[in-house]
Amino acid sequence: MNEPSASEGGRPGPHHGVVLAVFFASGAAALIYEVSWSRQIGLLFGHTVHSAAVVLTCYFVGLAIGSVLAARWVRRVDPLLGYGLAELVVAGWAPLVPMALDAVEGSSWAAWLSHPEPAMQVLVRVVLALALLLPATVALGASLPFMAEHLSPDRRLAPGRVALAYALNTAGALIGVVLASAVLMLAVGVRGSAWVAAGLSGGSGVVACWLAVSRRGAAPKPDRGLAARESVPGQSGEVPGGSARIWWVLAAISGFGTLGLQVLYTRMFSLVFHNSTYTFGAVLTVFLAGLALGSAAVARLHRRMSAERLLGLAAGLGAGAVALSVPVFLWLTDLDYFTFGRTFVGYLLGVLGLVALVVLPPVSVLGAILPGLWKAAGASGLAGGAVVGRLTACNALAAATGALLASLVLLPNVGLWPSIALISLIFGVIPVALLIRGGRRPEAAGVALVLLGFGGVAAVAPGRVRTLPPDPRIEILEAWEGSYGLIEVVQVAPGNRILRQNLHYGLGSTGRSTVRELRQGHLPLLLHPDPREVLFLGLGTGLTAASATVHPQVDRIAIVELIPEVVEAARYFEPENLGVVGHPKVSIRIDDARHDLLASGRSYDAIVSDLFVPWESRAGYLYTVEQFRLARSRLNEGGLFCLWLPLYQLGANELTMIADSFASVFPGTSLWWGQLSADTAMLALIGTEAPIAIRPDRVRATLPSLAETLDDAEDYLGSAETLARLYVGDWPAPARGARLNTDEHPRVEFLAPIRQRNERMLTGDRLLELFDRVFRGLPSHQLIGEGGSCDQELVTYRRRVWQREQLVRRSP
Fold this sequence. Notes:
Layout: H1 16-45, H2 49-73, H3 79-93, H4 96-105, H5 109-112, H6 118-150, H7 159-187, H8 190-214, H9 224-231, H10 245-269, H11 277-301, H12 307-333, H13 344-366, H14 369-378, H15 384-413, H16 416-437, H17 441-460, E1 475-482, E2 485-493, E3 496-501, E4 505-509, H18 514-527, E5 533-537, H19 543-546, E6 556-561, H20 564-570, H21 574-577, E7 586-590, H22 593-600, E8 604-609, H23 625-633, E9 635-646, H24 652-663, E10 668-675, E11 682-688, H25 696-708, H26 720-724, E12 727-730, H27 747-757, H28 764-773, H29 789-809
Parallel strand pairs: 5-6, 5-8, 6-7, 8-9
Antiparallel strand pairs: 1-2, 2-3, 3-4, 9-11, 10-11, 10-12
């Protein structure tokens, strides 16, 4: 990358390279903060789309305020000193965020965060998020204007230097995302990552302040003549004075479209990826790389063309490339599940390659818009830091709006593909407006027609691509697009329907799976002596929760479901789920499961946590020590917590980590089979205060009601004795120093996707090896009073022999 000419606004100072390196480091810190803070606040607010939108909005509002304030202060203080102080403020505030979150979680504020009135709930969350983030985000927002002013020492914007610095800062942000996603969260933890970022910010601030103090009185006088010749209004096509207002409008359009596009692209790739933290990080990484390349291009090209031409070309080409990225994505993927590579590293490289092919072309040219706007507005005579600060503030506020509308309005109401087409047309406003402003109306009309055509391609192209195997027996009964993705009810055979998310993730099914899904609810309820109030974390098809409706003791059933569209989809499974959505005993709440436990304050006799994909981003928080403590605190006396685990989505280390974490909370931790299969085995961790005892009389009284709901035979729950055969053993309390899965170190979320892509899941021989090495040696206790210790040992031996035989014999 070539540095702009040294004559631009005066020669760079002797420490110019150091200043750019510092700015690079602060860019990395900014993204690490964002990743860390969003996770920390998400645990309090709930990891929902609405909560994420509140946090993102508050983050960008702080950046905008900081940009505006710095634009006013750049002439009052040494800009390099101002930049350094801003970085020190961020570093000083970062450690206070987790302390404030801990204080709020234990105060009356926690109840207000889930106020029954939606408007009040949003207001309280916005106020709290602003209070938590504003000091730091204001300081983060101030850093760019101060740096721009420092790089423009003649008080005229030096667009080449500022664009290059911005490119390096954005490249630093890219490195921050990679570090946070691939290294820091696993190595030092969530809050620990923020400490690392604070170290980067603090170091950047100290270096900048030292440079500012040391260079006082020694700075060379700027070459005002060269700077003035470069920025004389009219020489490069820029128009000064009142016409500069258009740049603010275009900055808003650019910010709105850019962040809205990031949200939509993330959703688009969720249709084909395994949706771990790594794949989401890959999309953001490539997006930032595109913005950095666009800004670096401005640093090279700003002298060769006028600002208007630069902006028109960047926006026009970007608008067309955004529209064409949809057919390119469809052509490259055919909407099939992405399986490139035989290892996790190979898979991740393939992910980065695919995202780069689709995203990098449009985002690289769009990344030139904001630096181009600085150049255009800078010709009006504003100081370098002032023009950068004000335009960036406008861009940031519009960006927050774009992300909000894309997540909460466009995706649910317009759909993914038309939304991308709409964003393309929004960017198309820029070249059309500039052509009209220059009196070139025929060209403007032509460009508008071409971009409308491209937008139409983006909107209709997906309709020609299959989303199912070409089998006439398969049909989509209903589909919903929402903030969490595409939800579909798919009929694959008569009487066999699948509820799926984003084309490839099954949330449950009927047919041969009906008995198994019902068993997930029946088993824990049969193990409880008298379940009256029951909570199910996750609805899916509704079959698991429906099992509670046939237990005569159960009075109230609460269900928490994250995705609103799933509730509607569950109605398509009413013949099997016994109409659970409208059942008089049932209440359904739309919320994050973890947050509902925290905020509701209600207690239950039994809590049943459904199967969740361990490697999906943020799903790992349902397998942490803190989640288990929260569940235990919500149990009535004698209550139990049932956590279902898909062994075919876990490795042996992850299973051990989850079980140890669970046993560190529950004195009685027992393992039970939900499905004995070498390829699709399911296991339940049952947590209680005392060892479980099966009551044969209650089981016999309940079994007739269960049998009436089943069309197929239930091999496992035919009697108290067959129920006992599912008991694996008791998991002991973890040894001191055992690696646990915690909120600070969500190891399962980061390790499970690696294990999955390296094909090290607990299936086939690996599951049998685990059974022989671990399960056979687990201690066990009497369930039904089988007799003395010798009889108990014989019963345990026979039970485990039978279980191993089932694992070998049973197909999926």
